[in-house]
Amino acid sequence: MPYQQSIDHCLKEHGGYGVSRTRIDALLATLALAVSALANGKDKAAAPLLALPSMTSDLAAIEALAAQIRRRFKTVVIAGFGGSGLSGRTLLGLSPFPQPAFHFLENIDPETFDPLLERLDLPSTCFIVVSKSGSTAETLAQFYILHEQVAEKLGHQAAAERFTVITLPGDNPLRQSAEKHGMTLLDHAPDIGGRFSVLTPVGLLPAAIAGLDIRALRAGAQEVVDTLRGAPADCPPAIGAALQYAFIEAGTPMTVMLPYSERLACFAAWFRQCWAESLGKEGRGSTPLRAMGATDQHSQLQLYLDGPRDKLFTLITLSRAGSGQRIPVPEREDLAYLRGKTMGDVLAAEQRATLETLVHNRCPVRLFALDKLEEKQLGALLMHVMLEIILTAGLLGVNAFDQPAVEDGKRRAREYLIKNDL
Amino acid sequence: MPYQQSIDHCLKEHGGYGVSRTRIDALLATLALAVSALANGKDKAAAPLLALPSMTSDLAAIEALAAQIRRRFKTVVIAGFGGSGLSGRTLLGLSPFPQPAFHFLENIDPETFDPLLERLDLPSTCFIVVSKSGSTAETLAQFYILHEQVAEKLGHQAAAERFTVITLPGDNPLRQSAEKHGMTLLDHAPDIGGRFSVLTPVGLLPAAIAGLDIRALRAGAQEVVDTLRGAPADCPPAIGAALQYAFIEAGTPMTVMLPYSERLACFAAWFRQCWAESLGKEGRGSTPLRAMGATDQHSQLQLYLDGPRDKLFTLITLSRAGSGQRIPVPEREDLAYLRGKTMGDVLAAEQRATLETLVHNRCPVRLFALDKLEEKQLGALLMHVMLEIILTAGLLGVNAFDQPAVEDGKRRAREYLIKNDL
Q1: Residue A368: which of A382, A347, A387 has the closest Cα?
Q2: Chain B residue numbers touching A279 (CB-CB < 8 A)
């Protein structure tokens, strides 16, 4: 497996404020039916997601479009809310300074949108606009403004060449404009929601533009899908779901994603989105927190160690010893601990110290250990989280694939706009 | 006042899952002594912070140094953890694309540090290194590596000219190197901790380099300090502390900072740091969450509205109607609500819709309403939060100014490094 999961530090038997092995085993037994339904395609809602990792038929087209964009443009602007933006950002975490450069537009704040637009060199910039429904108000606002500006400055033909749209087939405002102007159009997978779309073109097109190996992303995800065929006790996402649910039923309101890798910063944000929107319903679920090692040792660790015991931690560690540059420390006795060490050594020592200090303070810690972080590992982590969420939803008795509560706010916002009551 | 605070939507009397006005009034009475101790300088731990906003004697030197850096360099790299980095980042939120450009180094991940260092154009780059103690392991690791590279490539004299160090007076590793090499040195305020240092040179130097009005930042903060002289019921930070404490004692584990302004993204992260490290101790406190409108409508809002009722929300709204660009919508009936509207109109409608939907779903919402967001407003919000935290600490019976729990992890990390046990 591309990662090693360990839940030992979450179990009462190991001395933590944890849950019991007996309860985990009982939940794994409960999950057997759901796991086999996923494995044999009987879970119809999840089947399109599970079929993705072994699919290769769509990859050549994505790679070809990506190569064309990569050759022609220096900057890529991606407009999309929720999973439509976070999917690409999460994969791009692997490539801290990609060429071309990327900007993600995930808000409609004129005070940041307008200055960015002014700074863009339009001739060398292209735009990818993502909305599954094609009617997301914020994405449409961005799209119409961007398109008008590019068309005014470069002409209609050049504007059309600079836009790629990913949306559902059928009639919707975004698709209508894209078709009318002759923009490049990719179909959004009809049966995969935005927050589960990271392994579809929504995530893979930006990743391929940045030069990432999208086949390896899917292959890593497939390794996790394959574990659904065994017993739940050998299936990491099932173990994860049993663990998360056991802490929720024990009254733990928060679940913290704490990677010791800056390249997983967006992965933690993506987890936060996918978890919250899939599980936070009918008064159930728990609240996901994104954190970052070593940064949050100077921010959240005091609270984690000595505040209320109300969190389950997921720590992601990466082998680091010997990596990075040697630290040229001057002669001082109080710096002896840094002498001859590299930056990676310090991070290695700190991730281990954080794990052991959390455990020493009786905080429950689930561990994902990675030897390295490349496409295969990230693909596996993404699929693990999506399956863990789907299985946790089953245990909670909620639908992982809808988000009914936000409709009321959308209706209100439209009403205020129509009445000009702002 | 630069902002208007309202807690009406948090009160049981208004029909929410809130706390009672009676309880808030009782807590305000309890706070009277603490508020007057802050006002008359008898709270010795907080006095240096409260004296800052009216201080002007240090500003000319900060402005002069900033002008010199601004003239000479195209890129500013700031190395500092916790408040040492977040302070500058928070103020720079006001200026989305500053000249010079800024990079904040708040981690020691070789996989992001090394590529950034490679990309820097060293002749046009300067470095500001911030550590109150001068012995923060991560900051020292960054500093020694950065300095060696710059000295190797540009020579010792040019390297010294490119480093500004902010640290305590007295012997410490960072100061020793800065003095030895003849770098520019600013003293860190001895009696103000990193997370309360935003209105000291730690925050103000980066702000001034970006061209912000640092006098207005302090003036805005002073307006909030002035409210300590009246009754607690007329002092916004005291009302905020009473509110936060009332929700904590009622068993609410989370407090959410949700600004509808991308320029306050770092403010929310700064709040998260200052709140967690100041209050998360002895099993007490609550967990701060940073969020962002409208972005998180597509991420966290489903959970906020329909998940467990375990959060107090602080919504920051900004007058928006008519701002930003007009959205050129095509003729479609389902787009009528966007016709003739600007991007700011949409954000205005959405912030109002989110407020009303949260209230409708019986979620407690404290409101900060801003007419505009400039230096004065940000300075006021920052001082409000710091005073709210200090007063909440008093109610909780914890020391707002220490962070004892993180020492064990630091000790362990040093031990693993010394033993080379990585």
Answers
A1: A382
A2: 303, 307
